[in-house]
Write a structure and sequence with these properties.
Blueprint: E1 6-9, H1 22-28, H2 33-54, H3 60-74, H4 81-90, H5 100-109, E2 113-118, H6 122-132, E3 140-143, H7 154-164, E4 171-175, H8 178-187, E5 190-194, E6 210-212, H9 218-222
Parallel strand pairs: 1-2, 1-4, 2-3, 4-5, 5-6
Helix pairs in contact: 1-2, 2-3
Length: about 230
């Protein structure tokens, strides 16, 4: 089995907790924080898929703002400039999941190249990675913005092959989004789905190679032959 030379991580939901904005939502609209956060995220993803199909690309900042507008309108929540600005700004300061720093440090110690491949725009990803202090661990940050379409389009996953100059089968792709792990698998990567919620596998005709409950399981798995 060819060894991994690089691991490529999804950002939102995998390394960074998109629901860490819930407290801010709850502060502004008591009793609605969790519902708003879930709907906002669902619409954010839906808009990336629809815009890709329509071939009407807009950057992730735009998509995230539009999804917030929709979610607030659907829940009957008034959204003026001040909370809009605070919530969108919070997407650049998302917290990492508790195990992220330890897991990435252990993986880096295995001499595997680490990268991010994200729907996020460069203007969103740069401050996000810096705020979390991940720059010393992850050397390459790739955005779909270079392709003007969103995951799971194959051309997006090809960015990692081109930038890292590593063959598909020597790249492991890691995502907490099953559809993303399936898209990467269909492209030709070996994939790891971080299934924190115990959800079933999406019925997309292809499945992730490995299903883990937490990112901190990954370093131990890579110290033994992967099949």
């Amino acid at each position: 089995m060819q060894a991994f030379r690089a691991l490529v991580f999804d950002a939102y939901g995998t390394l960074f907790d998109v629901h860490s904005v819930e407290a801010l939502c709850e502060e502004r609209w008591p009793g609605k924080g969790a519902q708003l956060t879930r709907l906002w995220r669902a619409k954010q993803l839906e808009y990336t898929w629809l815009r890709s199909l329509m071939r009407r690309y807009e950057g992730f900042e735009h998509v995230t703002a539009d999804a917030l507008e929709y979610a607030c309108a659907a829940l009957g929540l008034a959204l003026d400039d001040e909370p809009r600005h605070r919530l969108l700004r919070a997407y650049r300061d998302l917290t990492t999941f508790p195990e992220v720093h330890g897991a990435l440090s252990a993986l880096k110690a295995l001499k595997i190249r680490l990268a991010i491949l994200s729907n996020g725009s460069p203007a969103m990803l740069r401050p996000l990675v810096a705020h979390a202090g991940l720059g010393r661990l992850i050397g390459t940050v790739l955005s779909v913005d270079r392709r003007k379409t969103y995951k799971p389009a194959p051309t997006v996953y090809r960015l990692a092959v081109e930038r890292l100059r590593v063959p598909k089968l020597a790249i492991g792709f890691v995502s907490s989004n099953c559809w993303d792990a399936c898209g990467a698998k269909a492209f030709g990567f070996r994939t790891f789905w971080i299934n924190r919620s115990g959800a079933p596998v999406d019925a997309l005709g292809v499945s992730p190679d490995h299903i883990l409950h937490s990112l901190d399981q990954l370093p131990g798995l890579l110290q033994v032959p992967v099949s």
